[in-house]
Design goal:
Largest sheet: 7 strands, mixed
Mean pLDDT: 92
Structural class: alpha/beta
Organism: Albimonas donghaensis
CATH topology: Rossmann fold
Radius of gyration: 17 Å
Shape: globular
Number of helices: 7
Helix content: 25-40%
Strand content: 15-25%
CATH class: Alpha Beta
Order of helices and strands: HEHEHEHEHEEHEHEE
InterPro entries: DUF938 (IPR010342), SAM-dependent_MTases_sf (IPR029063)
Low-confidence stretches: 17-23
Pfam family, one: DUF938
Protein name: DUF938 domain-containing protein
Number of strands: 9
Strand order of the largest sheet: 3-2-1-4-5-9-8
C-alpha cells in the first residue's frame, strides 16, 4: 500500500494574510522551511552554479524552498512537485504571489515506489532530461519505499551528468548527534516505518541505480546535503 502523503504534513504557521490584512490565500508556511530555505538555496546555488535547464523538486511541501531556490538559481527552471493537493495549492499560490519567471507551475507527483506512478517518464515527456532532482526532508518522514521510488525515478529522469540532491538529517555509521537521535525516536513513535536514515543505506541504494559517491555539504542544525552524480 502506498504512503498517504497527508500523514507527513508538517505543522503550519499562521496563514499568510491577504493584501488588505484580511483572510489569506492558499499559501502555507512551515516554520522549519522558514528557517532553512535561505541556507538551502545558497548551498544549491553553489552546487548548481554551472547548470542550466530543468530541476525537479520532489516533495516540495509548502513551496517555500521552491520559491527561494528559483530566486537563487535564475538560469534553472525549478519544477516543484508534491503528492498532497493541499501542498500543490500552496506552491501554486506562492508562485502566483511572489514567484520568479523560472518557477514552474507545480505538478502532482507521488514518488513512492508503491504508488505505481511512473513520475520519471512524465518528467522527461514534459521537460526533457532533468539536470537535477532535489528532495528535502522527505525520506525520514515516509516509509523506505519512498526513498526507493525517489532514487529509481531520479535515475530514469536525469540526463547524463545530472545529480540527485538530498537534504536532511542522517545517521553515519550508526551514529548521530543527540538532537537527531531524539528526532528519530519521535518519528518512529509516530510511524515505525519512518525515521532518520543511515547515510550508508541511502548511498547503497543510489549506487544500485547507477549513482556515484555523494558530495557532502554540512548544513546548519546537524543536517546534510548529499549530491549524488549520475
Amino acid at each position: 500500500m502506498a504512503h498517504d502523503p497527508a500523514d507527513s504534513r508538517p505543522r503550519y504557521a499562521e496563514p499568510v494574510s491577504g493584501p488588505d490584512g484580511g483572510a489569506g490565500d492558499a499559501r502555507l508556511t512551515a516554520p522549519a522551511a522558514s528557517r532553512n530555505s535561505a541556507d538551502i538555496a545558497a548551498a544549491l546555488a553553489r552546487l548548481l552554479a554551472d547548470e542550466r535547464g530543468p530541476v525537479m523538486e520532489i516533495g516540495a511541501g509548502t513551496g517555500q524552498h521552491a520559491l527561494a531556490c528559483a530566486r537563487a538559481l535564475p538560469r534553472l527552471t525549478w519544477i516543484p512537485t508534491d503528492p498532497d493537493p493541499l501542498h500543490v495549492a500552496s506552491i501554486e499560490a506562492w508562485r502566483v504571489a511572489e514567484g520568479p519567471e523560472n518557477l514552474a507551475a507545480p505538478l502532482t507527483v507521488n514518488a513512492d515506489a508503491g504508488s505505481g506512478a511512473d513520475w520519471a517518464a512524465a518528467a522527461r515527456l514534459t521537460h526533457g532530461p532533468l539536470r537535477a532532482v532535489f528532495c528535502a526532508n522527505v525520506i525520514h518522514i515516509a516509509p523506505w519505499s519512498v526513498a526507493e521510488g525517489l532514487v529509481a525515478g531520479a535515475a530514469a529522469a536525469l540526463g547524463a551528468g545530472g545529480r540527485l540532491i538530498l537534504y536532511g538529517p542522517f545517521y553515519e555509521k550508526g551514529e548521530a548527534v543527540r538532537s537527531n537521535r531524539d528526532f528519530d525516536e519521535m518519528l518512529r513513535g509516530r510511524d515505525p516505518a519512518w525515521g532518520v536514515r543511515n547515510l550508508e543505506d541511502v548511498a547503497a541504494l543510489a549506487s544500485d541505480h547507477g549513482f556515484g559517491a555523494p558530495r557532502r555539504v554540512e548544513m546548519p542544525a546537524n543536517n546534510l546535503i548529499l549530491a549524488f552524480p549520475r
